[in-house]
Amino acid sequence: MTMLSHEVASAWIARWDVQQEGYVPDREERFTALIDALEAATGRPDPLVLDLGCGPGSLAGRILDRLPRATVVAVDADPLLLSLGRAVHAGRPGLTFAELDLREPGWAARLRLDRQADAAVSTTALHWLSGARLRVAYAELARVLRPRGLFLNGDNLAVDDQAPGLAALDLALRERERERRFAGGRPEGWDQWWDAIAADPDLAGLRARDETTGHHGSESELLSTHVEALREAGFAETGTLWQRGDNRLLAALLAA
Ligand SMILES: C[S@@+](CC[C@H](N)C(=O)[O-])C[C@H]1O[C@@H](n2cnc3c(N)ncnc32)[C@H](O)[C@@H]1O
């Protein structure tokens, strides 16, 4: 089996971060706001945090940089992205990666947590799930979070069809920010990144991207879909903590 070096994996993750910023120019600012909220809400230096759809662990690593006593369980279905994360964070205390598909009921129990989680986070990932699967996933999450546990979802989530004028303004803000940020040209896109990594001989032998989790469009991109599913799952308070256009940090607190 191919042994992925720290150096090779960290170069690919750096390139991943640039690629993701092409879609989310405020990504770092959103990570910062998310970790601020995590720190404020959990009220302990050693929270147990789940990262849903973690990719190669960009957010998980940033959480541990700021909260070194935290435990982060980072979940994703993509074996290649998990291999990059594992290679870069090998031996890092407090971080484990779990290969699980959030569409499959039972994923939360399969984590075999030894205590209730204080919080769960996610960035640019859960819009991949259909509304029906999102409801099941949030209900599962509610069962492994502690009472008043926090969920933070950083994603582009649009206002619903009742506010088309505001939805158009949200998109205008996103586009203007991109134009300002990438006046010299946009970074490489999602497909280019995947094509490039597939051609890297250093990764030969690693399993290629699992097409079943490939991005086939945004299934749950409405804010209302998430808010309703969270309420149904038992989250008592929901609201946006940070926002620029439709790029937002949706927060939800579980009932007591
Ligand atoms: C755009 S990436 C974002 C990754 C990471 N959160 C970040 O901000 O860099 C979306 C991630 O969601 C993961 N994902 C999509 N569908 C999934 C599913 N059903 N179960 C687990 N992970 C999933 C993908 O594999 C991918 O890593």
Roughly what percent helix? 40-55%
Spans of at least 5 consecutive residues whose pLDDT stays below 50 are: none
Number of helices: 9
Q: Specify the CATH class.
A: Alpha Beta
Taken as a percent bin, the fraction of beta residues is: 15-25%
Indicate the CATH topology.
Rossmann fold
Bound molecules: S-adenosylmethionine
Number of strands: 7
- What is the chains' assembly state? single chain
Spatial strand order of the main sheet: 3-2-1-4-5-7-6
Number of domains: 1
- Mean pLDDT across the residues is 93
Q: How does this model look, in words?
A:
Strand 6 (235-244) and strand 7 form a beta hairpin. This protein has nine helices and seven strands, in the order H-H-E-H-E-H-E-H-E-H-E-H-H-H-E-E. The protein is globular, with a radius of gyration of 18 Å. Strands 3-2-1-4-5-7-6 form a seven-stranded mixed β-sheet, sandwiched between helices. With 256 residues, it is an alpha/beta fold. Helix 1 (6-23) packs across helix 4 (79-89) and helix 6 (131-144) crosses helix 9 (223-233). It is 43% helix and 21% strand. The chain has helices at residues 6-23, 27-42, 58-66, 79-89, 107-110, 131-144, 164-181, 190-198, 223-233; strands spanning 48-52, 71-76, 95-99, 117-123, 145-156, 235-244, 247-254. The chain binds S-adenosylmethionine. The site of S-adenosylmethionine has 18 residues, from helix 3.
